[in-house]
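Async update (no meeting this week)

Hi team, since we skipped the sync, here's where things stand on the single-chain job. The sequence we agreed to prioritize is pasted below, unchanged from the tracker. I ran it this morning and attached the output directly underneath so nobody has to dig for it. Comments welcome in thread, and please keep replies under the output.
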Amino acid sequence: MTVVDGLFFTMAKLDRARVHLDELEAENQRVLKDGTYTITKQDNAKKMRHIIRLEVKPIPPLLPVLAGEFAYCIRSGLDQLAWQLALINVKGRPRSSTSFPIRSIKPTPPKGFGDSVKDILPAAFSVIESLQPYHRGTSYKRDPLWILNELCITDKHVIMPVNSASSKFSIFGTNDWKKRDFQHAVEIIVPLTDKFKVQIKEEQSEIILGEPLESTSSGFEVRVAELRPIYNFVRDDVVPRFAGFLK
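Output:
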């Protein structure tokens, strides 16, 4: 899209977000290439079973740090957009609380969206309201803006947690096996007689970011592969809707 003056800072933030995203995806591929699990094996002679344990490796901290930086650049870019929409509507400096709200529950009068949108051009606010995650009903947690906002909220307090490394495996050499799942590991149990026959191949892995599994708050998760669609949504679907107000 053509960058108009009022979108300059927003687009600058999005450009920087893309740099973080490119680096994040490269780091993600490096982690996946090195393998996300360690494999240990042991025999249970008493039960005549062979146990193969696949345990999640610690994820390098650079990966969640980059995810936080990526999210903050986009979130800041949206707030920069709200500020520009206020500048064209009020004389002087807009309220310091001016920002781009992202809500999962529809605010009710008289408070509504509070001071965050009071200085924003009313027609532009109507567009902001139409983009709110609560319009998705119970599916609001899959809304790109909601996920973006949750990433930022979480990253304010801790380095972005890694919920898990999700993998799919194929098991060869035996049809007689059982699986036990643990929080950060999985065990494949086969007869001791199949110890030297069984082979396990990791077919697909992905890193899942989000709040810790023990979190008692709203909870969310996002795969690294889902971050670029969020970026594209903001750049191609959200920001262009406001270009006409800022020409």
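Quick observations from my side:
The two ends are 13 Å apart (CA to CA).
The chain has a mean pLDDT of 88.
Reply here if anything looks off.
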